[in-house]
Specification:
single chain, mainly beta, 4-stranded antiparallel beta sheet, 11 strands
């Protein structure tokens, strides 16, 4: 029903910035929330940020507060993750997800993108 495609990952030096995009297609409900998760090698997938489709509700993981900004352009069916002041610890595959409500739990999202690699070097 919903397809998600991430883009914008790449290599960056510590302190640099990247902007990830998640393009959604299919039927998008106004009640959907969009989330970003990441998974580093040998680690569990962790919550990064989430936003309601309206943009009225936003949550960030403590580890990225003040550095990352999630935003949504629902006219373009696209959610963004602006990542500033990147740290090596941010290195991971970043996944976009869609669900029926804002949640920090990956299990509550119904649709997932394929992921985009973000690598931050020291």
């Amino acid at each position: 029903q919903v397809q998600l495609v991430e883009s914008g990952g790449g290599l960056v030096q510590a302190g640099g910035s990247l902007r990830l995009s998640c393009a959604a297609s299919g039927r998008i409900f106004s009640s959907y929330a969009m989330g970003w998760f990441r998974q580093a090698p040998e680690k569990e997938r962790e919550f990064v940020a989430a936003i309601s489709w309206s943009g009225s509700s936003i949550y960030y993981a403590d580890s990225v507060k003040g550095r990352f900004t999630i935003s949504i352009n629902n006219a373009k069916n696209t959610v963004y993750l602006q990542m500033n002041s990147l740290k090596p610890e941010d290195t991971a595959v970043y996944y976009c997800a869609a669900g029926l409500g804002v949640s920090v739990s990956s299990g509550l999202y119904d649709y997932w993108g394929q992921g985009t690699q973000v690598t931050v070097s020291s």
